[in-house]
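User: I'll paste a sequence; please echo it back and then give the predicted structure.

Assistant: Echoing your sequence first, then the prediction.
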Amino acid sequence: MTCPPCGEPVGAKDRFCESCGANLLVARTPAGGPLATVEAGAPCVGCGGANVGADGFCEDCGRAQPAGRDRMESDLGLVAGISDKGLRRARNEDSMAFGTAAGDTPAVAAVVCDGVATSDRADNASQRAVDVALDVLLDAALEGKDGEGASRAAVARAIEEVTALADPSVPGTAPSCTYVSAVVTPTEVTIAWVGDSRAYWLSAEGSAEGSRPLTVDDTVAAELVAEGMSEEEAMTVHQAHALSKWIGADAGEIEPRTLTFAPDGPGLLLLCSDGLWNYLPEPRALVDALPGAPTEVDLLPAASDLTRIALELGGHDNITTVLVPFPPKLESSGSQP
């Protein structure tokens, strides 16, 4: 066995790498994101074709093959995700981070943030937020802390980090982002969110609960509906889709909303930015877009299919899709790392 970060040999019962100090009970996406590199002979990320030229463009669909933040992919087995720049945006301001912790309360944790495009350095805000929040969630899992308390602490840490990016000499441009996270254990799922990035529960066929959204958008329209206005009327209000809550130095005092539930059977948890759900807002449409039943799909190909559909439908925004199966097949700290 070798240490994932540094590649040095480790023992089957080691908790930490003696060479670099990495915690061997934790596997996670790298800080800064799983940045893409263009590989010779790789299929086109847009159409899947094999005719990618030496100039980096697909000869079938014409799409430039992404590098860096343009297309980030990672598959840790128990969780996988893709973040794609889309077809219309100049850069990818979405970010994702996820990992597993084989502690006393083994867990999968994932975070998706969508940089607010009208703010300064939105990509930095979203990446800083997902990285620090994931650290909090994984550390809490290793220490056996409850998911809801850990989720609130993760949001608080993300708020601190993003707020620190603001330049007080340039008012009105504070780096900002939305936020959604999940902590998944063998018995329950905890969601936390700020803004309009979403979480969905995609259930196995026959589940009594059924597939459904787990979050309610923090937008002007959603706030008006909560106060009693009809959805039809709320959607006609000026800036109906504008955020009512976000993470940033200009956001004021923010408390995340949280939800903890114990699924009645197996299923699939989806975290995503509005680049996906704007095209597939209904749970049924998301389930139909999967390459198989929610409990049977391979995670990264399923995330790729959802991303491809969003691109085919216009790709007007950055698209981030993270999938976590429930129940996760986790090992406790007494097992090999």
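The domain at 26-34+70-326 is CATH 3.60.40.10 (Phosphatase 2c; domain 1). The chain has one domain: 26-34+70-326.
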